[in-house]
Amino acid sequence: MSDVENKVKEIVIEQLDLDVEVSELNNSSSFVDDLGADSLDTVELVMALEEEFECEIPEEDAEKITTVQQAIDYVTENA
Amino acid sequence: MSTKQQIALVTGASRGIGKAIANCLSKAGFLVAGTATSTGGAAAISEYLKDTGGLGLVLDVADQESIDACLKQLKETIGLPTVLVNNAGVTNDKLLMRMSVEDWDQVINTNLSSIYKMSKACIRGMMKAKTGRIINIGSVIGSMGNPGQSNYAAAKAGMIGFSKSLASEVGSRGITVNVVAPGYIQTDMTDELDEGQRKQLLEQVPLKRLGQPEDIAQTVLFLASAAGSYITGETIHVNGGMYMS
Description:
The structure holds 2 protein chains of 2 kinds.
Chain A: H1 3-15, H2 39-53, H3 59-62, H4 68-78
Chain B: E1 7-10, H1 16-27, E2 31-36, H2 39-49, E3 55-58, H3 64-77, E4 83-86, H4 101-129, E5 132-137, H5 141-144, H6 150-170, E6 175-182, H7 188-191, H8 195-203, H9 213-224, E7 235-238
Parallel strand pairs in B: 1-2, 1-4, 2-3, 4-5, 5-6, 6-7
């Protein structure tokens, strides 16, 4: 697992208050449909990613980050 | 009070209602930061809050850069607030036909856009803390209207809609958002009225007296404390009965 993937998963687990290990978190999991996030959770998640990876994620991009893999891809490409 | 001291940020705290709120919260055990637009005002706030460890800061609530600088300073000194009291405001009264775009914009920016900016700046810390209180100081004029105050009334009425919306958004995080709407309160402004004006004013108030800044401060304290934790999206009128909603 890459550093970015590991870090993204740690943030997802922390922000969504999940009771799983990093190794158990599926890349294809959707924040809302699989991990129980509400709209505020997804906003907080994006803000936590921005903080950790020191980047700014515009609103139109943020809307497209709906799964763990999409978050990893976005951070890998933009941060 | 919980074991960890809560931090409260009160804007416009150099005099009048804001000063009473800062003092009241501070006496109740909150660690209070009060803001003023001038360095002299901020120093005066530091002076009256120093016994309780609070401090005064310079802030122009209409200016995003000033807000960012103020929050940064707060973070580096006492920490981020879980209680935000948006009290700072101005009036610029004119009949609509005489009101310039600048008169309108100034009041809307300072009294309404400021609460959007301040709330946004503070809400992240509250979300992380999973608790927070945003208390906006409105006015009876926001519900009643008043000739010469279309800008002020619009800003204060807008504050109510803003507070209801934000209360719905962040309720799940234990953050409440409310408005305290004063009527006629004894401040520098009402001290300037002559006896005739004063009498006329009191005719509209069933309790037959002007409110004191402490009347507002106690209501703010109630909302900020555990006692008020189940109230959100609400406007509490503190006006001696001059307007009953």
